Amino acid sequence: ELELTIDYKLGLDFPAERREALWLAQQRVHRKQIPVALLAFARKAIGSKESVEAPLVRLLTREYGKVLTASELRTMLDLPAGFSVS
Length: 86
Description:
Layout: H1 2-10, H2 16-45, H3 53-65, H4 70-77
Helix pairs in contact: 2-3
């Protein structure tokens, strides 16, 4: 699935070593997403104004951002132009 997404959004010529790095980043996200989501729900339960999705988006952008340029990250995640990826 990740390979198809890369092909579609970043192009068939996206380098193999960067594909591997992106796959590893995705694995880090998968390992961390449940604890991050649970913490987000706990914060929401005690009145946090932040959306439950925000910490998960930050996790994904942080991990993928280690591999992708800001422009590639926006393309890969369909982020709006004004979304800060730094």
